[in-house]
Amino acid sequence: MGMSGVLRPGHAAIKVLDLDEAVHFYTNVLGMLETGRDSFGRVYFKAWDERDHNSLVLRQSDRAGLDFFGFKVRDEASLDKLESNLRAWGISTERVAAGEMLATGERVRFESPSGHLLELYAEKKHVGTPMGNRNPDPWPQGLKGIAPIRMDHSFLAGGDVAKTEKLFTEVLDFYVTERILLDDGVTSAAVFLSCSTKSHDIAFGLHPEPGRLHHVSYRLESWEQVLRAADIMSMNKVSIDIAPTRHGVTRGATVYAFDPSGNRFETFSGGYETYPDAEPIEWTFEEMGSAVFFHERNVDPLFFETTT
Amino acid sequence: MGMSGVLRPGHAAIKVLDLDEAVHFYTNVLGMLETGRDSFGRVYFKAWDERDHNSLVLRQSDRAGLDFFGFKVRDEASLDKLESNLRAWGISTERVAAGEMLATGERVRFESPSGHLLELYAEKKHVGTPMGNRNPDPWPQGLKGIAPIRMDHSFLAGGDVAKTEKLFTEVLDFYVTERILLDDGVTSAAVFLSCSTKSHDIAFGLHPEPGRLHHVSYRLESWEQVLRAADIMSMNKVSIDIAPTRHGVTRGATVYAFDPSGNRFETFSGGYETYPDAEPIEWTFEEMGSAVFFHERNVDPLFFETTT
Amino acid sequence: MGMSGVLRPGHAAIKVLDLDEAVHFYTNVLGMLETGRDSFGRVYFKAWDERDHNSLVLRQSDRAGLDFFGFKVRDEASLDKLESNLRAWGISTERVAAGEMLATGERVRFESPSGHLLELYAEKKHVGTPMGNRNPDPWPQGLKGIAPIRMDHSFLAGGDVAKTEKLFTEVLDFYVTERILLDDGVTSAAVFLSCSTKSHDIAFGLHPEPGRLHHVSYRLESWEQVLRAADIMSMNKVSIDIAPTRHGVTRGATVYAFDPSGNRFETFSGGYETYPDAEPIEWTFEEMGSAVFFHERNVDPLFFETTT
Amino acid sequence: MGMSGVLRPGHAAIKVLDLDEAVHFYTNVLGMLETGRDSFGRVYFKAWDERDHNSLVLRQSDRAGLDFFGFKVRDEASLDKLESNLRAWGISTERVAAGEMLATGERVRFESPSGHLLELYAEKKHVGTPMGNRNPDPWPQGLKGIAPIRMDHSFLAGGDVAKTEKLFTEVLDFYVTERILLDDGVTSAAVFLSCSTKSHDIAFGLHPEPGRLHHVSYRLESWEQVLRAADIMSMNKVSIDIAPTRHGVTRGATVYAFDPSGNRFETFSGGYETYPDAEPIEWTFEEMGSAVFFHERNVDPLFFETTT
């Protein structure tokens, strides 16, 4: 009862082409807080309002993209139950040992029909926020860069969105909040899924190649902070993909940009609260432009195609 | 798994001294949408982004205050399970017939240790939003008054907050997000509880009399909308209790005011996202002022004492 | 001494292709207040915070564009002095009789080197604001559409920007706040001029054809109102040219769109306060993109070329 | 013609009880930039968007309060003309030598009927902004504390407001934008004066003692920045006088607080643009509360009485 099973998006593990450059970028421009480095050379970050040890992990590689994306579940019992449900549904799982990621317990890893490596885990060390838990200030002074509140969601691109949606709704107990339809009026070009009251915790979109990262999204407090984020990006010559605008889907306000390795990220505010008893919102093929960018009412196919 | 059991605060039933005056106020100043009237003379309202038929019910009475406060649960099975759990915990329940409230299914009613009449229900007719579910606009044009997004939570005052907290955490699977302590360092003067990722879905505070209403809160989109709300209140000579400020608790931004019958209400924005695995934030007795009003850092005892 | 001579941009007279459609648009979408119609069939509007009778005049024509743009001067003595200064500088002037425009005194009309019909006038009837002058509310309830505070400035495109700049600085006592340079590092592609503490009251840009209207700009209160403006445009299927972003020049936040006749307009907030003793800001040719759109850091030549 | 004579409020010279504490406060909490110290031990500050060398000067003293308040005039000719006008009007003036204040030219000093030491000056060294004058960013990164855009105005309390108003309107060519009336319906309890398009550049209020400082005001960009200012004050245990609200007068949004010596200051955003041809807004005695604090609709007499 209550919130059980999957609680939230927990960590995004991202491949970058130049680790030093990436660490500088995520620290000083995006404004994440570095929380550790491991023996594999991976660098861990959290956002200031997150209590867990990390939500972003960078690894140097010869190509950009997503290593894996993990969800925090409520407890070990949930982890076991979800693993057995995944297997019953026909998904192979493996366990990654506790400690393989810093401050993180055992992970159940599986591949989604969309070709992404996903994970569930029940334990991640609470390191708390800079404000502490006793008479806390509303936000910490001395942050750098954009300084998002938390890692919010990811949009993953790949094949078989329909089966991935079924996996998330039937096994992981997410619910669909919105979908964008293809011109057949039936197939989802993109589907937005929530395991909470957030307008989305994960989204999937069709892409010719499996396992692609469209973007990881970081939450900001307000539309004014979205402007500030875009300002900071330009001041730092960040490659901005889409300047401040509103999504039709989720109503959220957004700026899209690329990290130095070409991984797209989003700084995002707003979006409604919703519940599993709400019927999904549907966007028709003709209104796909408004669905994605409510003001432009048009979306360049490159926006979908460009992934890492 | 996922969101089950109690989903959200669903309806507040409020007693008013002059129904016509109250309907005018809630329609034109607060900006709720009237959705029906029943044979008992009650008037039903929803906020524009709510999909259910009603979240506020007004009834004329010779004294102001709360009739009852209801929570939407996910389904009939949850309703049955929660009722049997309540009884097992020693709480008497009764069923109110479907249809007794407009567009609302059978309700399980019980009294909290704090002396409030609370309800659970699984069914309320979906009437949707003015924007619809297909290619929706982000918000509807032509709203009146303050026009909150949704009814957000209620703060109830009464006796035995400790036992009420236990009821909500042990039986209804809420979790404590924050508490304000008395000078004994142990007793909660107020406790804030969530059944979602919201910073609070319900709160209870100590009061010498049981069953008191401190306020019903309505969500706004932004701090700028909080200013606009206060402006509209002043333009309409609404009795404002507390002008725009930030809470320490929840970080939310707030204006408190009174409806024409003296029922306090709040227009509220912000507040963080949280999860059941977060440890509660504690405010010490010495910092109670900052907990309640972060800028004033002081709270007049009348703020707690004045209830309906 | 003090503010004398030219006080402010006062009226924009615009040609539209279909007057009824235009009146509907400017009333219900942009949210100007109609204040009168004259015997020539012209329709007059003001913004809600303007005290003068009109700031926008629409006239039906077989082509879109600017009829003329007028500046309010402090008094008749200023009008006479400025007229004689214009003539001494070699600019022909003519007087348009008081009353030719509704509620407007005698106008001194002249053509700028850029090929625009400009006017000065000392009298326009004060009709006041909806809030009145005694214990006023901060803003009026019941407005429609975007509802700008006031008409802010115009950007006019044509030839001989250099001579036009000299006219405005030497004769009309404007001062240059910013300029965007061509690749010769000397010639201004665009120049921004102020007669007040506003970051611009008028601007001129090079264009192959004389007398072109790039846009009339309307002031909004905040960046959140800029978002709302873009939302309202999309809800009403207005042709949006540029979605919310920030200018490098003036720092202002902006949305550009077209009225139903294709006349570009801007809804604008922010921009700094400046003074005639400040040295102009210069944008180099290489940074013209950032100068115009600070986040995109690129400007499509069509943005300059498309005028009416 | 154009903007001549007095351009703007230029510098506030403030007495503080502990210079080190004050420098720490104005640097790290208010977020002004220190620009120099002189042989008298005075410390000079500017706000980030000001181009002149200083707008705030602190001097240690055994009592808090205002030393003097200065206005920048357009040029030496204006300075001479204004001085001779002051004398003709019966005001004694004296010249303070160039260089007596750092980076500042000769000043014409006089005492207002309200008992304040005021100054005019034509020269203050341009040190520019951190963003520079060539392809500037919209704001500088790395600021500390509240970081206002500029010193905006001062509210001075003392005797003979009526004669002071005449001095400012008849000699210095300011114009009255608003006044709050006493219960005789004639006498101004407070008068707000502008020499620009700002809603006020200086204000005077009745006080039993002459030469009192009610507050110096610093401009912020937005209502969200007003919230942030109040947050920063509370985080730093600054004594807040009035938490975020809106003024009826000027419509501006405000937080009032005290520096460590007890000098009140304001962080302020908004306010309308106005012009010398606008009739003043009047607030009746009965609505004095709304005039000062539009939401509270009440003002504690201590708010006026407490001055330094």
TrEMBL record, chains A, B, C, D:
GO terms for molecular function: catechol 2,3-dioxygenase activity; ferrous iron binding. Signal peptide: none annotated. Gene3D superfamilies: 2,3-Dihydroxybiphenyl 1,2-Dioxygenase, domain 1. SUPFAM superfamilies: Glyoxalase/Bleomycin resistance protein/Dihydroxybiphenyl dioxygenase. Pfam families: Diox-like_N, Glyoxalase. Its EC number is 1.13.11.2. The keyword Cytoplasm does not apply. It catalyses: catechol + O2 = (2Z,4E)-2-hydroxy-6-oxohexa-2,4-dienoate + H(+). Keywords: Aromatic hydrocarbons catabolism, Dioxygenase, Iron, Metal-binding, Oxidoreductase, Repeat. Its cofactor is Fe(2+). The keyword Metal-binding applies. Residues 8-123, 150-270 form the VOC domain. Homotetramer. Belongs to the extradiol ring-cleavage dioxygenase family. This is Metapyrocatechase.
